[in-house]
Amino acid sequence: MKQIGKIGNTTAAAIVLAALLGVGCLRVYQLYSNEAQKNKELENQLAELTKEEQRSAVMQQVNAQMEEIANEERRISDEQREAAELQTKVAQQERQNAERQRHEAEQERQNALLAEHKAVEASEIAQKARAVAEQQRAEAEQSKRVTDTLSFITLSRSLGNVAMNQLQTGNQDLANLLAYTSYLFTNRYKGDIYNPSVYQALVATSQSKNSWNKHKGVVSSISFYPKDNSRFLTVSTYGEIMEHKTTGDNIKSTTLLNNNEYDFRCVVAVQNGDTYVASRHGQVMIFPNGGERIMLTIPKQDILLGITSIGEQMLVIGEHTLSIIDTKSYSIVKSRDLPFHVVYFNRYDYSPILFDDQGKMHIVRALDRLESSKVPYKGQVTAFASSKNQGLKTYGMRDGTIYLERANGKATKLVSHRSQVTKIKLNGLRIYSSSYDGKLNLWMADQEKIEPITLFTTNSWIMDFTYDNKKQYIWAVDQKGNLTEAYIAVPMMVAKLKNQLKRNFTRDEWDYYVGKNIPYENIMDK
After folding, report:
1. pLDDT tens-digit map of 56-73
2. Pick from 453, 386, 382: which is nearest to 421 by CA?
3. Which long-range contacts does 271-280 make (Cβ < 8 Å, 24+ apart)?
4. If residue 294 lies in a helix (H) or strand (E), which one and from where to where?
5. What helix, strand, coil percent values describe the chain, rounded to 5?
C-alpha cells in the first residue's frame, strides 16, 4: 500500500514532471517560436535595415551630391552675395558720392542763391539809390523848371506892362516886340494868357479895333444870325433896321427899314431864321424867313423894352405888361398886366428874368407863373448875366458897379466903370461888360485878384454888344450910330501882331528889357 502509495506518488510526480516538462517544452517551443519569430522579424528588420542602409547609402550619396550641389550653390551664392555686397558697397559708395555731390551742389546752389540774393539786394540798393538820385535830379529839374517858369512868367508880365508904356509914348515897333515876346514866354511856359498885363498888351498892340458909322440914331441892339457867322442885324432909335455882312476887315450894310416913326429897342434873330424887332411905342415887326414883313401891335398900350424866347414862343416885355407871340401863326395869343414897373430884363435858368424899380427880380416860368425875390444888392440893376455851368451870377448896377456872385454865395465887387453898366455877357470864366463910360471890359473870374482888362474905349455910350458865333470877335454898338469890332480870340490877335513886327530886338534892347542872362532870340523868326 505503501508501495502503491509510493508508485502513485512517483507517477504523480512523473506526471507532474511530465506536465512540467510538457509545459517546459511548450514553453521552450513558445520561446523558440517566439525567437524564431523574432529572428524572422530580425531578418526582416535586417533586410529592411539592409534596404534602409542601401537607401541610406544612396541617400547619403544623393545627400553628398546634394550637399556638393548645395555647397556649390552656396559657394556661388556666396560669390553672388559677395558680388552683390560688393555692388551694394559700390552702389552705397556711389550713392554716398552722389549724395555728397548733391549736397555740394545744393550747397553751391544755396551759395549761388545767397550770392544772387546779395546781388539782388545790392541791385535794389543801387536802384533805390539811383531812384533817390533820379528823384532828387527830377525834383531839382522840376524846381529849376518851376523857378524858370515863374521867372519867365513874371518877366512876360513885366514885358506886357513895358509894352503898354512904350505904346503910350508912341514907340509902336518896340511895343509890338515887347508885347509879342510877353505872349511868347507866357505861352512857352504855360502861363495865363489872360493875365491883364499880357492880354491887354496883345489887345492894344494888335490894333484889332475897327469902327464904322452906319446909323443916324442911337444903335440900341445887335444880334447875329444863329447859322451865319458873317451876318448880323442892328436897330436904332431912329427907326433903322440894318443887315451887315463882314468880309475880312470890310463890312457891307443893307438897310431893311428906315422909318423914324419907330423907336427900335431890341432885335432878335432866332434859330429858324425869323427876326423879331420890338419898337418902344408898342409895335413888334416880324421878318419871317423868306416871307413878307409882319407888323403886330401890343393890345395894351405900353412902352416896350424888348423881346425874348419863352419855350417855343416869344415873350414881348413892356414896362408894365407881358405878351406872348405864337411863332407859327405870328400872332399875339396872350397878354397880362404886371403889378410892378420893369426897368430891365435878360435871361436866367433858361427863362426870362425881369428887374423892377423896387429892388426885386422876377423869373418868368410862364405868363401866369412868376418867381419873385429880392435883389441881393443895393441899387438899380441895369445889366445881368449868369452861367449855370460855372455857377456864376453877375449884377451890373446903375452906378457902374458889378457884383460877381459864385455858387457858394460869395460875392466880389468889381469896380472900373464910371457910369451905368449897359450889358454883361459870360463866356466860361470870362466876364465882358460895357458901360455908358464908353469902355468894354474883360474880367477873369478865376483870378485871385480880378482886375479889368479894357478891350477898347469909344467916345460914346456903349448901348449893347455881342460876339460872333465862333467867339472870335466882339461887336459893340453905341449912342452915336457906330459899330465897333475887336478881336477877343488870342490866336487872331497874335497872328495880326506877328504880321506887324518889323524887326528884332537889338542886343542892347534885349539885354535891357529881357535880360543879359537870357539867351538872345530872333523874335521875328518864331
Report:
1. 666 677 667 767 766 776
2. 382
3. 271/226, 271/227, 272/327, 273/225, 273/227, 274/327, 275/223, 275/233, 276/307, 276/314, 276/325, 277/235, 277/241, 277/307, 278/304, 278/305, 278/306, 278/307, 278/316, 279/239, 279/304, 280/237, 280/304
4. strand 294-297
5. 40, 30, 25
Question: What is the pLDDT of the chain when averaged over all its residues?
Answer: 87
d(CA 399, CA 377): 12
- Residues 189, 159 contacting (CB under 8 angstroms): no
**23-29: long-range contacts (C-beta < 8 A, 24 or more apart)?**
none
What's the chain's length in residues?
526
Q: Is 1 a residue whose pLDDT tops 90?
A: no
288: left (phi over 0), alpha (psi -120 to 50) or beta: beta
Report DSSP state, residue 237: T
Cell numbers for 8, please give them: 502513485
- For 25-36, the pLDDT digits (tens) are 666 566 667 666
Cα–Cα distance, 305 to 357 (Å, whole number): 14
Q: Structure pTM?
A: 0.72
CA pair distance 171, 297, nearest whole angstrom: 57
Please choose, from the candidates 495, 520, 508, the residue with its C-alpha nearest in 3D space to the C-alpha of residue 176: 495
Contact 280, 324 (CB under 8 A): no
Query: How many other β-carbons are positioned within 10 Å of the β-carbon of residue 99?
Result: 11
Instruction: Decide if 142 contacts 157 (C-beta within 8 A).
Output: no
210 within 8 A of 201, measured Cβ to Cβ: no
> Can you read off the three cell numbers belonging to residue 178?
515887347
The per-residue pLDDT for 152 is 78
pLDDT greater at residue 335 or residue 194: 335
Q: Is the pLDDT of residue 74 over 90?
A: no
Q: Which residue has the cell 429897342?
A: 265
List own/partner pairs for 226-234 with CB under 8 A and 24 or more apart.
Answer: 226/269, 226/270, 226/271, 226/469, 227/271, 227/273, 228/469, 229/468, 229/469, 229/470, 232/269, 232/466, 232/468, 232/475, 233/267, 233/269, 233/275, 234/267, 234/477, 234/483
443 contacts 434 by C-beta, under 8 angstroms: no
pLDDT at 4 (0 to 100): 47
